Amino acid sequence: MQPRLSFITLGVADLERSKRFYTRVLGWKPMHDEAAIVMFLLNGMVLSLFVQEALMDDAQVKNDGRGARFTLAQCLRSPEEVDALFARLLKHKVTITKMPKKVFWGGYSGYFADPDGHLWEIAHNPFLRMDAEGNVLGMSDV
Amino acid sequence: MQPRLSFITLGVADLERSKRFYTRVLGWKPMHDEAAIVMFLLNGMVLSLFVQEALMDDAQVKNDGRGARFTLAQCLRSPEEVDALFARLLKHKVTITKMPKKVFWGGYSGYFADPDGHLWEIAHNPFLRMDAEGNVLGMSDV
Fold first, then answer.
1. pLDDT of residue B142
2. Are A75 and A7 in contact (CB under 8 A)?
3. Which end of chain A has the lower number of beta carbons within 10 A, N or C?
4. Which residues of chain B make contact with A52, given a CB cutoff of 8 A?
């Protein structure tokens, strides 16, 4: 797996409140802003705000009061690369919370947990524009 | 505040166990590896593994069972820039968990919390090498 981060997603209780904070207090401009998710393009990666319950649901982890307050994500260039990485993770008996599958937003995505339960999403996102090194440049119009 | 991420630090229960996972299973090579912290250089930013208790202590947050499982950090180019940002945060009545001060590793650092309690460290790290856009290139020999 390349040492590369495409997204960090913060689970939030109130998306409007968080959006106000990041836009008005920190002064950031959203790259993508819709009902359920707000994204900011940072240096070669994206910081997303996503409703906490939806984030846990997406990663298929339980709401035990401490789970999935954030996720990290690495985007790969094809569904086949996602499958190949999960094959490797399975060999190493890594905890997989969601085997890769087609997801509602048009991508292909799965999740694994590191030894402390920190969640990594490995995804193919056909709308994401990346440079040759994998830095995120933006999103295509969906 | 620039839309830019310098570090993400994951709080871990057992540093050796986490290091084994990230090096052997994911195949990453540490950029910096010492008793208390392990750092991996990703695309323009650093992912650090840091003992959970030490992370909470550094951010001056309480151990309530759900606090500070990770922190985000943005490094600025001088202690004065750190102070200027905190002055702005104070005006906006942002929750500050640690006012900027000199810290043991030779830097100058403070922490604030976003509306969900996600912690941001704002620091000047004299050992960090960044390009003109603020992408992290590595660490000087300490």
1. 55
2. yes
3. C
4. 116
